[in-house]
Amino acid sequence: MNGKQVKDIVLGIIAVVAPDADLTNVKSDVRLRDQLDMDSMDFLDIVMELRKRYKIEVPKEDYPKLATLDSCVSYLTPKFAVMVPV
Amino acid sequence: MHYDVIIIGAGMSGLAAGIRLAYYDKRVCIVEKHYAFGGLNSYYRLEGRDFDVGLHAVTNFASPTKRNAPLNRLLRQLRLSREDFDLRPQHYSQVRFPGKSLRFTNDISVLVDEVAREFPRDADKFCRLLTEVERYDDARLDAPYRPTRPMLREYLREPMLMEMLLCPIMFYGSAEEHDMDFTQFVTLFKGLFCEGFARPPGGVRTIIKALVKKYRSCGGKLRMRCGARRLETDNGRVVGVTLESGETLTADAVLSSAGYAETMRLCDGAFLSSPRPSPWEGEEELGRISFVESVSILDVTPASLGHDATIVFFNDAETFTYAEPRGSVDLSSGILCCPNNYKRHENLQEGVVRLTWLANYDRWANLDEAAYTAAKGALRDNLIKRVREFIPTFTAHLVFTDMFTPRTIRQYTGHLNGAVYGSPRKRRDGRTPYENLFVCGTDQGYLGIIGAMLSGITMANVHMLEKTTNVG
Asked: ipTM of the predicted structure?
């Protein structure tokens, strides 16, 4: 899975956990929390959706690695790579 | 049957917690002793009419643009839309004291102007208090207890203004008599004055039905008329819930909305069936705040009789006494609520006037059936006298009145003493002496209907969802 696909997956999850967020011009290198006004509950849901949909585990100490779309891509791409195809 | 989590109580907090857990694939079962959902905020049908219990107003009404407002956070967390709750804002509400009144709406600037009009000496000071309240993080789970009255005295010079602010705030959420925790004061101040009131035209059942439907669609199990009789414990852990039927369900964790003392009693095997349980070490922590409420049906709307306020909080003295009364009710203060007086509530066929007074649990609990009915009847004259101050022609249009008392509250919620807002001592982190038993709802301490749901959500997140992602 390439970076673009991972990015789309993360945006797709944000669209579900925060349907009221405007996702038209999300910058890859700016903290999601700042540009989308997301709170810790929203962040927990990104983690939970990754687990529910893709069985990807993000331990609490790694939450900061989901801060921006770019950091999501670098952190999650290897995890998607080892994912067993369903 | 083994569950990841068993939730005690199908009220707002239990259902919200259940949705979170079931949505994230936990095996969840909610056990509810009553046949109706909702707990403290429930509903019933009598003589062909729908009645609400509890809900006068949904506080914390916020526009969709305020993403971090409690209402919008909880809708996101529950994957519900605004349409599901169908909330319509209030007209206006009022605090009435001798010679003074403060009107407020869902726009805080109205209250700011009203304070400046009635208490010009404190106009600036009130704005400073408002800034402090808006800055204050009242959602944190580790906030220490601080009494509110000394804090308010630092801000305000006019004692009556302090009383007039405390009156609606205490009525709508304080489990403590006379004073309250400042964090709770801030939560309610924001919920009542900064955000404001709303209501679905269908009443509280609209909200409860949305929660139940969502919970079921996520695969959650709901067992009604299925009270928890005992929590089976072993070595500091709860291992199972034994039901009234004798059946035992096992679970990895239990989340109880029954109240802290009530839950602890389930653990040591004491039953909750007697109306006034024997002395117990936690007795002093039990709440004393309970209410009598009358619901009167009119053949016309209150607005057509000249009363268009949504909610009026009244008090006959310059100081407001918020405490369990010595007599059966405290007639000197109360709340008058007209559900018709919300925007776009024209579909309500009849007029409804609800009047609420502080009440003494023991006085009501100890009556036999005949005396109980007589006591309710005796309040009728007081009810009419009071409502006529607001609606002079009330009696000519009165069709029907029903009344519930601390005894009814005790029966439906299981709260000891019929304590509407639970124990004065809140357990904000939800922890108990048992490592896998947590409390949510009134005794966790987020307040109001939105607060109750956020309580369930937060406890499920912190104790059950974040934990599994760590271990996972």
From this structure: 0.91
